[in-house]
Amino acid sequence: MNPDTGLDTELALPLADASAAAVAACRLVAVVVTFNRLDKLKATLARLLESPEAELAAVVVVDNASTDETADWLAGQQDARLDIVTSPVNRGGAGGFEMGMRRAVEAHDPDWLVVMDDDARPAPGAFAAFHAQPRPLDTALAAAVYFPDGGICEMNRPSVNPFWNPRVFLRTLFKARNGYHIPYDSYEATTPMAIDLTSFVGLFLSRRMIEEAGYPDPGLFLYGDDVIYTLRLRRQGERILFDPALRFEHDCSTFQNDHHRVFHPLWKVYYAYRNGLMMYRAAAGLLFWPLLLVVVLKWSFTARRYGAERQSYRRLLRHAVWDALRGDTRRTHAQVMALAQVKD
Fold this sequence. Notes:
alpha/beta; 12 helices
């Protein structure tokens, strides 16, 4: 049971009974963040623009200062529904989504947004399925995300917060991530399932929810920004449902089947650990403090995987922990990259 909202996070809720909240008209706008993956962006935009305007009114593309041919290709696109926003610097995924969501709300008068990375796209019929049911304004929707080969995309498997539900907490002690991530058979269910945490791949958000909760923190840059944002929604009393009828595909390989992750480039260590601790603190409450000791000790031992870079790794870890404890996301990307430099 969520102490803030009183919602049983394991309850499956049919959409028709999900809320007495008003149901908005469904002017849907997509937000796509891209950086140096033109081939995948092309596939994503082609899929999005297959949808008629009644299903998808506009597509905001945030070019995160790509250094390949992305800018030139985007400049040559003629579809009136495309709105290209170019950042002068790479603001990371968090900054890109903040910029794109803000642009969508301010320029396109949406009732709903759907967000995704450049290598993720709706399956055919996903938007038709979204429009087929009334959508309460207090309920975000997380898509069922698959790899192109049809397998479930593990990095996008939604979760319930084990610290808000004693049964889930106990299950997590024995099953680790399978204890708090939704079960695989949820993907075959006929009714949506209440969740607490999900990714920015196929997340549908009403404009009202964004106006209440604000935008993602652009200072997070990379990793965990989606989890921190959806946790914020839940703590403010909004609901999130995993809806298996809304199918997305994610053409990615990041850490797929990698149980001993090593971050390259090294600067990613800082964001993974700082944002991870901020996420744990938002999820765990007072239990964060014993968890902090366990997690930081584990990360300290991980230094041995980094060979000649271990001293830089430890420096990034120290700053990540310090900034996380202060909730400080002001460190610039240039400063983070400087921390990652090998120093004698």
